[in-house]
From TrEMBL:
Residues 1-20 form the signal peptide. It comes from the Bacteria. The lineage of its organism: Bacteria, Pseudomonadati, Pseudomonadota, Gammaproteobacteria, Vibrionales. This is Outer membrane protein beta-barrel domain-containing protein. The keyword Signal applies. Keywords: Signal. It comes from Photobacterium marinum.
Length: 181
């Protein structure tokens, strides 16, 4: 009887271990290229993200008004599932910005951004999310935030709308398009 229970336990443990290896480490793809247009002020931008580990990715973005200004960000992020429909995310980015009205300087400034956020599926094709973070560029410090909704038309393509709150270009609405890489 003891050998039978031991054999049954080993079989059940091996089945659950094999099943654990087939699960993914997040509910979303972190491999994408993004094109975006900001409204008020009018900006144009691009972003990219690439997974480097099951729970980590590198991320970069650039935005500009094409008026001798820019906002560059490059960093590393983490992501982990909270449940079957949501991921918690965080990023640490190096930011380089030239924006005279915001920084009150005609030269570029470098600083850091740290943020934490959540991504959530509301349905099979609708994703919502948000981030809150701290931006420190030179002597300019502030709390920033992003909220967004994204419609996944296919597995490879999505469109979205994002509200950027208190960021380098102040409060701004952005229209985004993402392509899975």
């Amino acid at each position: 009887m003891r050998k039978t229970l031991l054999a049954a336990g080993l079989i059940l443990a091996s089945i659950s271990a094999a099943h654990a290896n087939t699960q993914t480490m997040s509910n979303f793809s972190y491999d994408y290229a993004e094109a975006r247009v900001g409204i008020s002020p009018l900006t144009y931008g691009a972003g990219i993200s690439k997974s480097i580990h099951p729970n980590a990715h590198v991320i970069g973005h650039v935005d500009t008004e094409f008026d001798d200004d820019w906002d560059l960000g490059l960093g590393i992020g983490f992501h982990a599932p909270v449940n079957n429909w949501a991921d918690i995310t965080g990023e640490l980015k190096l930011r380089n910005t030239k924006n005279e009205p915001e920084l009150k300087s005609s030269s570029s400034k470098t600083g850091m951004e740290v943020n934490i956020g959540i991504r959530q599926w509301l349905g099979p094709q609708l994703e919502v999310g948000g981030q809150v973070g701290h931006l420190n560029i030179d002597d300019h410090e502030k709390t920033i935030g992003h909220v967004y909704a994204r419609f996944h038309a296919t597995e490879l393509f999505s469109i979205g709308i994002m509200g950027r709150l208190n960021d380098v270009y102040d409060d701004q609405i952005m229209l985004t398009t993402r392509f899975k890489m």
